[in-house]
Amino acid sequence: MDLRLTDKVVLITASSRGIGRASAERMADEGATVVSAARSSDREIEQVGAGRIVPVTVDLSVPGAGAELVERVHREHGRLDVLVANTPGPKLSPALDLTWEDWMGAHDAMLRPVVELMTAAGRIMVGQGSGAMVLVSSSWVRQPAPAGVLSAAYRSAQSSFVKSLASEIAPRGVRVNQVLVGATGTERMENILRSKAQANGTDRDIELDRVVADIPLGRWGEAHEIGDLIAFVASDLPGFSTGSSFVIDGGAIRGAH
To answer: How far apart are CA 176 and CA 118, in angstroms?
Structure first.
């Protein structure tokens, strides 16, 4: 399927590996120039398919770094057609065990960067009269999991911001959507399985079986599957969609909405 991303300028954060990396590879393969931002990266500019991936090192937990990154991409590439706002997941812990420092750390790593990135990108895209933004979020927004309160709380705040922003800038030709991701075979998921195994006195495989038992499709997702959906949502093909949530979780969310 041609996603019509040829020659588009795309910025994807937290994209040195996992879902962010898979999204970057798919969009570059479709012909886009993808600026891949991460806290650390030893990669060089890569030719992928008809496009390329340009690595940039940035720590988005630093105040103002998100806006500066967007402005840099716009300055160096002349425009910004797509922003994929991806953030690392916070620590897992029961709510009563969290400190205020834990909450503020998650705020600085998750909420502030998304607001900075999308605000700066939105201003540029409104000026262009076109553009698309995609928030990479979690199915925990709709169905929280034990010890996942930081993720559920801050991703819910992100989602509310996305919904509000989408309604405000839709008349200016800019779309804003989010993708709610379920259990996926990434490095973070492996860390979660190991943490659960340690806490429960089991092993990684037992914890994986427990996760998969709650997924009707009987497996977890692969990063490239999530990347494919993100690329589609970011493209012009679903052009009548804004303020929407696209769920990809193997059917794990039980609610109808």
So the answer is: 9
